Amino acid sequence: MLDNHTEPETLLEVNNIEVVYNHVILVLKGVSLTVTKGGITALLGGNGAGKTTTLKAISNLLRSERGEVTKGSIIYKGSKIQDSNPSDLVRSGVIQVMEGRHCFEHLTIEENLLTGAYTRSDGKGAVSSDLDMVYQYFPRLKQRRRSQAGYTSGGEQQMCAIGRALMSKPETVLLDEPSMGLAPQLVEEIFNIVKDLNQKESVSFLLAEQNTNVALRFSDFGYILENGRVVMDGPANELRENPDVKEFYLGVSEEGRKSFRNTRSYRRRKRWLS
What we know:
This protein is of the alpha/beta class. Helix content is 36%, strand content 25%. The chain has 11 helices and 10 strands. The strands form 2 sheets. A 6-stranded mixed sheet has the order 6-7-8-3-9-10, with helices on both faces. β9 and β10 form a beta hairpin.
């Protein structure tokens, strides 16, 4: 958890990046953001806003989808990383948990977790210790550790994907849509575990999430994307009280029924996207 009395250290800086797919399709249009050490930063917005593309630009997974960063820079702990190999990036402490979980269905839960330690060279004892740590945070995974991942629930697969990322001993985790397709109580459970990992293990998180309400409750700072641009940012508690955010993202209006053309969100979208 961030201490309000000290200036937090910046881990990750994304500076005015543009991303193009297939040399033609401009998806990100000058996105800038900062991830502080020991914090949880939320990247919010609807489908197609550019959240996943931003995470993949950071983790260098765009090339597999014929995408590239054509402008701007991405800096992690003072070094430019946009041309790094993804495996080197994992070794330096940055790992992404993909949208849709992407567990190896034919492997057991424990085998899936151990694949996360592939880049490590600190010995079996350290890996075993971290496996016990993952089971401590996700006791359900310990119960299902001999089960094939393909036969576990969506919530258990999401826990497995996060646990697998933790096995690489990351300093920063890029978490893409952790609530997607999960029951509300499971979403709450997973976000509480993320908060625990942040506070007790000092893991920093950049999470892309459509569930604005939950994301702002558990994060320290938030950025809102629309059509590939950051249109608003600020401390999470201030964003939750912002009238635009309340009306458009939280579904809370301070007034009664009125013409959609007069709603703040309609006027705001016309202003932001024009």
